Amino acid sequence: MIRPPTASAAQRKRRQRLGVGLAAFGLVAVSVGLWLAPGLAAPPGGQEREFVIEARQFAFSPARIYVNQGDHVTLRVRSMDITHGLYLDAYGISVKVPPMEEGVVRFTADRPGKLRYRCSVICGPLHPFMVGEIVVQPNRPFSIAGVLAAFVGFGGLAYAWWRKGA
Ligand code: CUA
Q1: Which of 49, 70, 89, 128 is least surrounded, with the fewest CB atoms within 10 Å of its CB?
Q2: Under a CB-based contact definition with an 8 Å cutoff, are residues 114 and 144 in contact?
Q3: Which H or E element spans position 120?
Q4: CA–CA distance from 75 to each of 32, 53, 105, 124 (Å)?
Q5: How many CB atoms lie within 10 A of CB 119?
Q6: Atom of ligand 1 nearest to the CA of 82
Q7: pLDDT tens by residue, 41-71
């Protein structure tokens, strides 16, 4: 025999639903927090960063560099054999590096994304393959602030909903 649910049963059901909702919210918050944790540990952008890049036939070492958006980047390009060069596509900056010398490139990584750099002096048959990239990571503190604001808003809504239901 089926009886219509009493008021207290309905209330219990609502509390159960609220509990499931809060648990789901907590899970999402924890996983996003874990995902962001390395970003929290990373230094914010706007720092002075310096890298030594060795150029030799036919590669740059390192061929990939990571910086944060807003960093002021100095590349010290050293040629380990013959004359090479480094051309930074996005900024139109170029430097020519004679054997065993050092050329310097400076720029501010003002936009996120990948910046290609390549050898700008014809140095042999595999010269076109002398390439590298600078990965400019987006400004994390800004996105963290956005996510935190979203969570505070979401939490407020959940609380208001809970007060209404109580
Ligand atoms: Cu090295 Cu062209």
Answers
A1: 128
A2: no
A3: none
A4: 34, 7, 5, 23
A5: 27
A6: 1
A7: 455 678 999 999 999 999 999 999 999 999 9
